[in-house]
Design brief:
Blueprint (H helix, E strand, L loop, with lengths): L5 H5 L12 E7 L6 E9 L4 E6 L11 H8 L20
Antiparallel strand pairs: 1-2, 2-3
Length: 93
């Protein structure tokens, strides 16, 4: 998560929006080996979120991100699902 969006993401609510330029990254590991796997990136641009897939070393790879885009279009807050409930921070008053 880019530093400028970290607090908003940690307390994500349906009305929350992240700032333009925010980057959300998911790092995966191979289940069998524990070795680093693909990296999925969302970057908020002026007109929409941009999706990209990278290999474990951060190089762009040919990967269909349409499924990612479709799923995130259904997310409750600014195309994001947020942290698991037990890891969320309550909003500041």
């Amino acid at each position: 998560m880019s530093p400028d969006a970290r607090e908003r993401y940690a307390a994500l609510l349906p009305v929350t929006t992240l700032p333009e330029g925010a980057v959300v990254t998911a790092f995966h590991q191979h289940v069998d080996t524990g070795k680093p796997g693909p990296i999925y990136v969302m970057e908020k641009r002026p007109s929409a979120w941009f999706f990209q897939a990278l290999d474990a070393d951060g190089r762009p790879v040919e990967h269909t991100v349409e499924l990612c885009q479709r799923c995130h279009a259904e997310a409750p807050a600014d195309s994001l699902f947020g942290l698991p409930k037990e890891r969320r921070k309550p909003p500041e008053k």
